[in-house]
Amino acid sequence: MQIPEGLKYDRDGLIPAVVQDDTNGEVLMVAYMNKEAVEATLKTGRATFWSRSRQKFWIKGETSGHFQFVRSLSVDCDQDCLLLRVEQVGAACHEGYRTCFFRQISDDGETLATHGTPLTDSY
Amino acid sequence: MQIPEGLKYDRDGLIPAVVQDDTNGEVLMVAYMNKEAVEATLKTGRATFWSRSRQKFWIKGETSGHFQFVRSLSVDCDQDCLLLRVEQVGAACHEGYRTCFFRQISDDGETLATHGTPLTDSY
User: Fold this and answer.
1) Of residues B4, B18, B94, nearest to A111 (C-beta)
2) A contacts of B31 (beta carbons < 8 Å)
3) Using a CB-CB distance cutoff of 8 angstroms, which residues of chain A are in contact with residue B105?
């Protein structure tokens, strides 16, 4: 198993990864991987990132149990972004929502919470 | 119409935007917006970005005709990433594919083109 060659990391050594629910196509979150996280994701089949805020290796679900089991991994034309289709356990969002994108912005620029309430079994 | 307050831009003044096909949920591309691009997107209803490679304002489809008409705009929990659901005209990818994520990475780390061939009416 090799890290794909040609992936372009930014000046911090990171590549963004869009995480999409494989069952219904919902976009769940965007997080960042370094080379080690890409390798771990491919090796373990569990989405693994680099936490920019905590500056540490981050196995998604390690503390919450909300793992993301990777069903497929794609790279974009410029090779500077990844797309993971996953089986999401529980909520992807640390605020308890299924998706991190639970706030919709209306035409007047205000934000509206429109994607339901947090799951009861989280946090 | 106001730019949503609270959006977090990176040190280059940019925020990533995931673009998703509103009709079938396919993730089409990821691009970057500055404040001006967010405002233009909200005002015009057409996805507008900041091109990092060309360092210029970029109305998607301006030269190709492959506009993205925005159906909804969401922001994630950390307010540092946007999600656009769009009506995509033609191909999102400059290489002529419907989605920029046309290359799937296999378990051994090799990349495979798996998402069909470029649309014939583009490039």
Assistant:
1) B4
2) none
3) 4, 42, 73-75
User: Model confidence over B5-21: pLDDT tens digits?
Assistant: 899 999 999 999 999 99
> Does ipTM top 0.85?
yes
Coil, helix or strand at residue A42: helix
pTM of the predicted model, to two decimals? 0.92
Which phi and psi (to 5°) does residue A82 adopt? -115, 155
The single-letter DSSP state of residue A46 is: B
H or E, element range at B16: strand B15-21
**Which of B16, B30, B123, B13 lies closest to B75 in space, CA to CA?**
B16
Distances (CA, A) of A108 to A111, B37, B42, B49: 9, 15, 8, 19
Rounded Cα gap, residues B95 and B62, in angstroms: 16
Structure tokens at A15: 């590549």
**What's the pLDDT tens digit per position in B58-69?**
999 999 999 999
- In the structure encoding, which two tokens stand for residue A28, read together? 């769940």
Look up residue A57 and give its two tokens: 């290796």
Instruction: Report how far residue A74's alpha carbon sits from residue B112's, in angstroms, rounded to the nearest whole number.
Output: 9
d(CA A65, CA B120): 45
Do A95 and B77 touch, CB atoms closer than 8 A?
yes
Structural tokens at position B49: 């970005």
DSSP-derived secondary structure letter, B106:
P
Size of chain B in residues: 123
**Is A76 in contact with B26 (Cβ distance < 8 A)?**
no
